[in-house]
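REQUEST ID: PR-0412
SUBMITTED BY: lab tech R.K.
PRIORITY: routine
TASK: structure prediction, single protein chain
INPUT:
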Amino acid sequence: MKKVLLSAVVIASSAMALAQKAPKLATFQDLVKAPIHAGAIQPTEKALGVTIWSDDFSTPANWTIDNNGQTGIDFGWNINSASDGWWASSGINSTSGGNYAELVNGDPTASPASQALNVVYTMTTATPIDVAALGGSNQISLQFKQYGARFNDLQEMLISTDGTTWVSVGDNLDKSVLSAAGGSAYTNPDSKSLNLAPFLTGAPSQLWIRFQWTTNYPSSATNPNVWITYGWYIDDVKLVTNPTNDLAVTGSDWGSVGLHYYQIPTAQVAPIDFSADIFNGGVNNQSNVKLNVNVNSGAFVGSSAPVSIVSLDTMNVSVATQFTPAATVGSYTVTRNITSDSTDDVTSNNQLSDITFNVSNFIYARDNNVVSGSTSNGTSGFETGNLYDIYQDALLKAINVRLPNGTSGATVGTEIYTKLYSIDPVSGDFVYESESAPLVLAASNLNTNLVVELEPYVNVTAGTTYLAVVGSYTSGLKVSNAGTSPAQTSFLLDGNDITTSTLFYQTSTPYVRLNFDPVLGTEEIEQVQQAVIMPNPSNGVASLQFELLNASDVTVTVLDVTGKEVQNSTMNQLLAGTHNVVLESTKWNSGVYFVNITSNGTVLTKKFVKK
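STATUS: complete
OUTPUT:
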């Protein structure tokens, strides 16, 4: 059973603790600036049935366009053989070639940006399609080729049997958002198939098809960012008869109490469930339908109870017996498939990918270790991380994170921290537990498994859910993502006050892990003790005072918020005791600086503010 800790609420304009549980709105700063050109043509998928109607936009008059009062090639729908938008230069790689339909809404990269606000653009078949006369029934599917990418837009498909009442039959919200932080454009071309049988009561004598574009965030309609689009390209639209036998997997889940983990500490092993939502899109009813699971080539084999699914119905099935890994270090590969008494006519839509996870000594990980993109928050501070269920009491010592490097990575010199919250089981509120000392990022901290210890350590308790995050109070933090999360199990806190800031769930999984390694903290006490800067803040000369436990070499470096080094003082073989270093602050500009004291391989960081 999937866990839902916090109820979803539509994005509102006011900030409230736990009030906003929705994907984060993409800003212009997140926009991919460089045009993304068409990719390779993909192999054509198997047709679902017999084509009874088609249109390849050779005749633009076959479609009625309503561009909501906007004029010009840069706004709304147009039909021709050229790519007219700002983003892609070569259009769609469709089979028919020639004309295609394209949706544009200005140019967000122009100065000033030119996207239109408060618009709904539609493109509709000019005359109704007589499905009955063409030999069809209600058992038909709408198919077409498309290209583009998703930002904050809603790309929707609708039908009508009277030309007045419109029913949504699909959209592209299953596509990832393409931004500077990650995501991807659609395959060029992407094949879309929508089963219309659930929306039709019989063979219609008139059927209109509509493609519609608007914002996916109507409550934020005054924000120009919600009206940005890369563009949407459509070609080779057709109606085809549905297959005789067609089971499709419309969703699947696995994990313990709804959370799946790719690394599980031996002490936190728990029974794992497997389930799937199966839709019968074929004409025939299907019997003896089962979800089958095989772990490590027969080490565990399980199936759901057999069910019958009538045409156009969906059923959720779960493997009857839970699988519990051994509480020893090991790797597991899970294969899954759907079977029934019939031979499926379209096998491509019921394939389930393999699952691979590990039982480890001490690491608890929600991410799959395949880094793709990152989470950021423009110029604002933020926290991001994952929920974790605890099944056995344990001492949590650290949170591991991975931060990207490179020109679009985290900024050297940014001060970060890790933090742990527990979840109040009654209210669902996040309750502060502990956090790390601040860490000023060095180049060596990026693109690696960074271990950040909590101060103090936390005794986590069985039966409790925790949220582990990495955060920063300033800009410059970016966090690697790896894999996907069920809604409301990975979060981004926009700002740094858990009681007043805005919380969003994210479906990309941030690389934020729990670390129960008992060796952590057993090394010698840090050599540098009781470091203090006086005065702080200061508009003149300041002094760093610190105490050494033993004689050693010491280096003091000072970095500004961009990571630029403004002072480097090396002192060899200082004796144990108290020492002072003058900070050359009179030479520095006003702002925040980070003072690093390095001795015997350990670094202690202090923040200094120059007025």
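NOTES: The domain at 528-610 is CATH 2.60.40.3080 (Immunoglobulin-like).
REVIEWED BY: pending
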